[in-house]
Amino acid sequence: ASVPTFLLGLYLILIFSVGLGWFPSSGFPSLADEGGASNLRYLVLPSLTLAAPNAALIIRLIRASMLDVSREDHVRTARAKGLHPVRVAIKHIFRNALIAVSAAFGFTFAALVSEAVVTETVFSLPGIGRLVVQSILRRDYPVIQGVILIIVVFYMFINLLVDLAYARLDPRVSLK
């Protein structure tokens, strides 16, 4: 991403919280203080901060993959057979383009975990990222090890899901 996560978060706070007053700038209320749905407005800016750079990456990757796949022989054959353009786009182009995109999702989740640390700090949100920062400052090694273990297990699970999706999308790959 061309804009660092913390800077994007600060810009969003400056525009939408300070300037326009649409969203709260930081924190998260206790569930006892306010109802569940009203708390969602506290998550809009942090969610945008995390999602925008990754969404841009995925969209660019989908576009590039679809352009590459649309030039392949099997797509040209499907069009020559007279298949409906929507069917060609969905069945032949989009499905094959998702093969490359599915691999990128694993990397995106790894980036989300590291960006969450910064985002939780910028928006003063309670979360695993803030816990890691506080534990590092207090030199609380068991907590740091536990959080890293949870992140590693989560990352392995995401990679397993990506591999299963890859096997499902690519007919050349089989699970044995």
Low-pLDDT residue spans:
none
| Helix and strand run | HHHHHH
Number of helices: 6
- Main pleated sheet: none
Shape: globular
Mean pLDDT: 82
Let me know the number of strands.
0
- Based on secondary structure, the structural category is mainly alpha
Helix-residue proportion:
over 70%
Relative strand content: under 5%
Number of separate structural domains: 1
Q: Give me the Rg, rounded.
A: 21 Å
Ends distance: 37 Å
Q: Please, could you describe this protein's structure?
A:
The mean pLDDT is 82. The chain has 176 residues and is an all-alpha fold. It has helices at 5-19, 44-70, 73-80, 85-122, 128-138, 141-169. It is 73% helix and 0% strand. The chain is built from six helices and no strands. The chain is globular and about 65 Å long. It has one domain (5-169).
List the main descriptive attributes of the protein structure presented here.
176 residues, globular, 0% strand, single chain, mainly alpha
Could you outline the blueprint of secondary structure elements for this entry?
Layout: H1 5-19, H2 44-70, H3 73-80, H4 85-122, H5 128-138, H6 141-169
Helix pairs in contact: 1-2, 1-4, 2-4, 3-4, 4-5, 4-6, 5-6
Summarize the structure.
The chain is mainly α. The protein has six helices and no strands.
